[in-house]
Amino acid sequence: MPAWSFPATALSALHAGFRPHLLDVEPDSWALEPSGVPDDVALRARAAVPVAPFGAEPDLEGWATWSAETGVPAVFDAAACFDSLGRAPMPDGPPFAVVVSMHATKVFGIGEGAFVLSNDRSWVLRIRRFINFGFTAARRSDVFGTNAKLSEYGAAVGLAGLDAWPETRRRWMAVAGDFTTRLAAAGLRAQPGFGGPAAVPYCVADFETPERRQCALEALSRAGIETRQWWGGGQHANPALATLSRDDLAVTDTLAARTLGLPFWIDIATRDVDEIFSVLATSVG
Ligand SMILES: Cc1ncc(COP(=O)(O)O)c(C=O)c1O
Known about the structure:
By secondary structure, this protein is α/β, with parallel strands linked by helices. It is 38% helix and 10% strand. α6 (210-222) packs across α8.
């Protein structure tokens, strides 16, 4: 799995009894790509966990091909990919799963909760059993399981959210379009995939150097504007994950040092956006 991700990626693998190995990402996509998995790592791996960073479209096709070649299944952390997944057809071939978050910080937020997609019916059935006490057709724990079902309340919010989705999506895209124009005017870019074609819930600006990022962070903070380093220094920078085995993580470390999540949400007021970009214009312009 990539080091450039939220710690939930490694934590969930650890909970499932695996020992994560962290790999570096590509500078253009900010993602671990199949070509970035060294042969010796692929040989030892029991699963790959690619991450689609900040809602970018996951490379389902590329990883399906990699799985077919290596015999290693892929489980995608596509936490922020509710919209971009609609553009990525499910490839046939080796079974894989895609996990999508519906936490409040996502474009399709219902509070808490997630769903799993798979191209394989038997995987879907196994996951259904696992999240429902290991029940099979009989109301009996035939296999190991837990209670990880979506709450009734969350499901109701989700159903209402689906009715509103076309308009919600339009509004996310409008804010992202405005940010894209303003970022370009400030000589900045956001993460790959920001501004279209899919709606994403984050605007992670790339300041190109740690010094420029620090200037922006301090200027925004002085103006009372919060920012987020969504993935901190990468998964390996979390004390609980510091001992995980890893390859060289130079790109991850660079991204962690020079990117910053700007305030970005669906109904952010124009005057707030004006203020953010006027601070940025003076600090990095
Ligand atoms: C890449 C990634 N994986 C997992 C998660 C955790 O998702 P959840 O909050 O639904 O547990 C996040 C949260 O933002 C994330 O960015």
